[in-house]
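User: I'm writing a tutorial on reading structure tokens. Could you give me a worked example: one chain, its sequence, then its tokens, then a sentence or two explaining what the tokens reveal?
Assistant: Sure. Here is the example chain.
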Amino acid sequence: MHTLVTGGAGFIGSHLCDSLAQHNWEVTILDNLSAGSKENVQHLLERTPKKVKLLEGDCTNPAHVRKALENVEIVYHFAANPEVRLELSDPKTCFRQNIYATHILLHQLKDNMKTHTVIFASTSTVYGEPETIPTHESYGPLKPISLYGASKLASEALISAYARTYDKKAVILRLANTIGPRSQHGVIHDFILKLRRNPRQLEILGDGTQTKSYLYIDDCIKAIETAYKTARNRVEICNVGSEDQISVTQIAQIVTEEMKLKNVKLIYTGGVDGGRGWKGDVKKMLLGITKIKSKGWKPKHNSRQAIRKATKHAITELQPI
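And here are its predicted structure tokens:
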């Protein structure tokens, strides 16, 4: 198989490329390296230069996408602006890098007879604040409360429509918070940097009761493989996450333990809108994963195990200030 991985030099994308290369796929990576890094895939470019190639380009550029799609059968669309917080990603950037980039990709592949499948990395935030937890794929209506969640839901709609209109196959993966080596943002990353600046206290955005599930990267990649191999419908939607939750305060405690710090004072900002860390922060999240478990996948790590393992890696990866 010859596959294109957009955002393949990013966190999840680079781990996916590792797996595809191990299974002897030919892999084209399209990445503008704004959120990703060439270092994430350098080992693949050196060891398997005939199988893996990197095109430095942008999904918003039709010429770049057209070139990347040459001889490609399957597209993993993982390129996106990963920032959920509004202050870190303005609406225009979110629209362009998420929705518009998806439109350009789909428009370029609609008449491509060789490319038959698109696998899309969506997010749990498309559900907004569901009344039913755990939240399953059949839940609706979907009401995102963040621009990031809205951009992903809009991309889902475009992919679904293109798949049905132009006889393509689509697999949409609604991912929980995915963590592990190579991740360059998120709560663990933020906590470690803050504690290195001041090991005596830790600022926590919100009231600390925000409770969500976390998925370790190895489990995520296995789930992606399972969802693709077992997809039977024209458009298949699967939740991917762990089966438990952990609070922000509990994460802070794990991070301080792994950094060998004692008597750290936790300072809560109080947050917005009832203790959220920021506008658009979903307070409670737990995905129902019955569907993908029925396909033969289940996570090896629960949220607490994933947080601890990811923290160990992050402490090693992040350079001291």
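What the tokens reveal: The longest helix spans residues 91-109. The chain has a mean pLDDT of 95.
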